[in-house]
Design a protein that fits this description.
This protein has helices spanning 7-15, 19-30, 37-49, 55-68, 88-96, 107-112, 123-134, and strands spanning 2-5, 32-35, 70-71, 101-103, 114-115, 118-121. The two termini are 16 Å apart. Strands 3-2-1-4-6-5 form a six-stranded mixed sheet, sandwiched between helices. Helices cover 55% and strands 14% of the residues. β5 and β6 (118-121) form a beta hairpin. By secondary structure, the protein is of the alpha/beta class. It has one domain (2-134): 5'-nuclease (Rossmann fold, 3-Layer(aba) Sandwich), CATH 3.40.50.1010.
Length: 136
Amino acid sequence: MRLVIDSNVIIAAFAARGLCHALFEYCLESHDVILCESIIKEVKKNLRKKIKAPASLVAGIEAYLRESTSIEKPIPVDPGVFEDKSDLPVLGVAAASDSSYLITGDKALLGLRKYKNTDIVDPRSFWEVVKKKANK
């Protein structure tokens, strides 16, 4: 399955050993994770500013993301689709990659629920999807 993981989930995955960390590692091992330059840029910025991670750690995380995921170019998204213009590339890469899911903690994106063929879910909801599929 192809998945886009938003920057807030990736940051949480590296900041703590909780649900987002486990989910991120599972996704890397079991699915095709798709990112775009905008997501990587946001991860780097917030690791430095919010988490106060040292530059060397941020560089290592960026390298890991580039090695472990596919970086694709977003398709243009009509600005009328979504109010927060900074999230348009996230929707654009989900559409460009024909991802099944966009996993995010962003409440505004979650409010869309779906964009084109991509379901927009929070990390816990994605875990529930995975569990249901595993039990079939």
